Structures are given as structure tokens and as C-alpha cells.
Amino acid sequence: MTTASPGAGIIGIDESGKGDYFGPLVVAGAYVTPDQEARLRDLGVRDSKACSDKRAHTLAAHIRTLCPTTLVTIGPERYNSLYASLKNLNVLLAWGHARAIENLLETVTCERVIADQFGNARFLNNALMQKGRAVELIQKPRAEQEMAVAAASLVARAEFLRRLQDLSGRFALPLPKGAGPQVITAGKSVVEQYGPDSLGQVAKLHFRTTQKVIA
Fold first, then answer.
1. Which of 73, 112, 118, 127 has a CA between 20 and 30 Å from the CA of residue 195?
2. How many beta carbons lie within 10 A of that of residue 57, not counting itself?
3. In sequence order, what DSSP letters do the residues of 80-123 get, joined into one string?
4. How far apart, in whole angstroms, are the C-alpha atoms of residue 35 and residue 45?
5. Looking at residue 49, what is its pLDDT?
6. The pLDDT of residue 161
7. Which residues does residue 69 pair with via DSSP β-bridges, in sequence order?
8. Cα(109)–Cα(112) distance, rounded to whole angstroms?
9. Which is it for strands 69-74 and 112-116: parallel, antiparallel or unpaired?
10. In this predicted model, what pLDDT tens digit does every residue of 140-164 receive, in sequence order?
11. How buried is residue 161: exposed, middle or buried, by Cβ count under 10 Å (0-12/13-18/19+)?
12. Beta 112-116 vs 10-16: how paired, if at all?
């Protein structure tokens, strides 16, 4: 792991899987110093939404080699349990973001964290624990323009894709990304082959997609 000097870099936080019916929600954090930022820029690191899946895997591997990173992965079953308890997606997101921040602050000394804003800023502020409350937290739209957040988005996306592929293998069915018609068809196949109770093992049940799958 890269050694970090106090205050030298920025922690970026981002998530993947929020809009995908199948698979986990993954929150990632990346600590990036100015020197590392220049190297990541040379590699072509940018927001994961602008990268192919193959490119996301490649860049994420480089990022994890160059920078301290952390992952908080909430699998479908755990996600559904948390959502049933919290009853608010933004609160659940804040829970994951706060833990990613705390985990990374255990390994690096940093005074500034940047995260993409979701909902009211108070959700994440309220979820932070002792270490997270001691740093400057900046939440803003399109935070992926910051290199540290772009790096985190790629690490999160690569892990989401890996976990989704693992689920597809486990159920011997292709589980597509997103929440469109192909996803509904795949969901129906899961129910037909494994029963309705199995849907919660692969999908985020609060999506409206669930109603279309079981209709």
C-alpha cells in the first residue's frame, strides 16, 4: 500500500450498482495524492460511466496498485435487509459511504473527502463516525470530475461487475446490468427456475422491476 503523508492527498468516494436491479451495491474509496493524480491522468482514469466494462477492470487494477483503496460491498440479501430496516435509499447509501470513509481513514491520514452528492447532504453527515467527522467533507454534483472520485468510481464499478458475474455463474443465468426489458426477462427466468424466494438473493427487491418480474 502506498505510504501517505499527512494532508497530502484527497479521499474520493463513489458507488456502483445503485441503478442496477441485479447484483450488489458497492461503495469504494480511493486516496489520491497529487503525484498519484498525475499518474492516474496519464493512464486515462476518468468517471467509470465513460468507460467500457473491460476498461473499467483494467483501470481499477492500476488504481488499486497505485493508491490506497477500500471497498464496502452490500450483497443483494444484505441490501434487501438493510433497505427493509432503513426504508430509504439515501440513508442506505450514506451508511455505505460513511463506512468506506472510516475504513480508509484507518490506513491513511487525510483532511479532505469528496463525494458525489445524493439527496440531502445531511444523510452522509449524520452517518459519519468519529474519524469521518474530523475531516472536511465536500459533497457536490458531478464529483467524478475530481480524480480521486473518478478513481473510486472505477474501483467500485469493477467490483460490482465481478460480483454480478459471480452471481450469474452461481445461478447459471446471465444477469444483465440496469433495469430494462432484458433484466425483467432474466428475473422471470430466476423465478421460474429457482422460485420467487430466490429473487432476493440476486436482486434489489424495492425496485419497481420486481412487480414486473413477478406479475
1. 73
2. 16
3. HHHHHHH--HHHHHHHHHHHHHHHHHTT---SEEEEE--S-THH
4. 14
5. 79
6. 98
7. 30
8. 10
9. unpaired
10. 888 888 999 999 999 999 999 999 9
11. buried
12. parallel
Q: b/e per residue, 8-25, with b = 16+ CB within 10 A?
A: bbbbbbbbbbbebbbbbb
For residue 177, the one-letter residue type is K
**Is a pLDDT exceeding 60 seen at residue 188?**
yes
For the stretch 83-103, pLDDT in tens is 999 999 999 999 999 999 999
- Sheet containing 25-32: which strands, arranged edge to edge? 69-74, 25-32, 10-16, 112-116, 136-140
Smallest CA-to-CA distance from 173 within 192, 189, 191, 194 is with 189
> Can you read off the three cell numbers belonging to residue 184?
425483467
Buried b (16+ CB within 10 A) or exposed e, 75-99: bbeebbebbeeeeebebbbbbbbbb
The residues near 132 (Cβ < 8 Å, ≥ 6 apart) are 98, 101, 102, 105, 113
CA distance 93 to 151: 18
